[in-house]
Amino acid sequence: MSSRTFPPEKRSENPEISPQRSSKRELRGFRTDTQHGRGLRTLSIATVAAIPIALALVFFYAPIEAEEGFLQKIFYLHVPLAIVTLCGFVLGGLMAIMHLRTRERNWDLRSYVAIHMSLIFGVGTLITGSIWARGSWGHWWVWSEPTLVSFLIIMLLYATYQPLRFAIEDPERQARYASVFAIVAGAFVPLNFLAVRLSTEYLHPRVLGSSSNLPAKMAFTFFVSLVAVALLFATLCSYELTAKRTRMLLKARSRILGFR
Amino acid sequence: MSAVSERPPAGSDTRRPRASPPGIAATVGALLRKELLVELRTLESVPGMSLFAVTTFVVFHFALNQNTVSGDEAAGILWVTLLFAAMLGVNRLFVADQDQGGFDAFLLAPVDRSAMLLAKALALFAYLAVLELVAVPAFGLLLLAPPLGQTLPDLLLVLVLADLGIAVIGTLVAALAVQTRARDLLGPLLALPLLVPIVIGAARASSPLLVLAHPAEVGGPPIRWLATLALYDLVFGLIAYAVFDFLLED
What is residue A245's predicted lDDT score, i.e. its pLDDT? Predict the structure, then answer.
């Protein structure tokens, strides 16, 4: 099984985890990936087109909200970021299920990249959410907002993904344990939202997250922003995947040629 | 030290004819017996956990500068203390198996892997029960303002439901963390966010039991929070059952 040879991402702090297995076998596992980078250009162009369109809609098309004014426009960045982050976490869990079922290291790599990118987007969500809370309620942090609190708990849990992963030396076990973590954490995401929502008594009357009561112009802008952020996520993920695969391929090839 | 030998004790089931491997109940029984026997002989976890809890109550007394607590505050102190004391047990749960080959011995046996999860979770549940046998009366004696007696049956229900969740999540996290280099650090880091819903449920369910009021006015624990706890236990039990086997293959 070539799944045993998945070399983890090269990290300076643990150089000992690069596997000393048969390089030829390793290369054979990559043969299917030699056309990687497919669709990267299309995705990039779509993202580069979608983000200015979304921004233009946000600033020139969407009406100024009556109650909050200009500040409400951060909604078009914050909520799509949050949605994409949570979907990325759950997606990482689903990919981890695929990894445990098929034992293909590609699934583990995908799961890793999805969670890694979601963590970065999640930091963006927390920062934009904090700015919004400050502008709207006067505090940088509000405990009565269940979505914000659940999001923080989820981020704290996922912050341990990389420490856990890179504290395991054996590459095969590393992938397996990371997948187990990704599945458990992915299932925890909706559960945690439920529990935290139960614990707060809906202190604030406004429900800005739901698009059901949005005017049509706002809903359209929101939808376009969501698509743009999702495209950005997909593009960054596929760039990272391509970079990782290329690096692994390069390492395997240079090992065959005897450079190390 | 022969006390920490990892072999299941030679019970009656090992002397059966070898044609059929032992069932899951027999396996869980053997593993649980071994677990409790090891703990009884080494006393590695439970006394430390109990002592930690009592010391933490003393620390809370000085840190909060209060002689008695009640209501939300009491529930918070009780659950933070129990949670952190539980972390000590979680951290030690698989260490002996990892260091002394218990995993290998278990994997060699032709038994269901899930038996390990069940046995370890039951053992952790037993540790938590003993911990609370010490910690809850100590809490009533040292810090709690209302008398403990009248609310004890209701509080027991909350404790059991929360302990089930802590036992399942603790076992899962301990099995994840024990194979890493920084296991003492990663165990609590992984467990605490996963246990936040348990803390929410347990603290909200027990705070109305710990208010300073006339005995007749003290209501039962809110059904909503008991249901939340039970549901969370159930869901995480299923998740742990689904993924635990993957932690045990080598």
Answer: 87
Beta bridge partners of A69: A65
- pLDDT score for A212: 54
Phi-psi region of B43 (alpha: psi -120 to 50; beta: other; left: phi over 0): left
Q: Which residues pair with B43 in a beta bridge?
A: none
pLDDT digits (tens, 9 = 90+) for B183-218: 889 999 999 999 999 999 999 898 888 888 766 666
- Nearest CB to B246 within list A100, A157, A199: A100
For B181, the token pair is 């280099």
Give the Cα-Cα-Cα angle B96, B101, B106 (nearest 5 degrees): 100
Residues of B in contact with A157 (CB under 8 A): 190, 193-194
In angstroms, the CA B127 to CA A19 distance is: 40
Question: How many domains does chain A divide into?
Answer: 1
Alpha helix ranges (H) inside A138-215: 146-158, 161-166, 171-199
Is the pLDDT at A47 greater than 50, yes or no? yes
Residue A235's identity, in one-letter code, is T
Task: Give me the interface pTM, i.e. the ipTM.
Answer: 0.84
- CB-CB neighbors (< 8 A) of A191 in chain B: 197, 232, 235
Say if residue A15's pLDDT is above 60.
no
In a domain, A122, yes or no: yes
Q: Search chain A and give the residue with CA nearest B241.
A: A184
Rounded CA-CA distance A96/A177 in Å is: 10
* Closest to A214 (Cα-Cα) out of A54, A59, A66, A86: A66
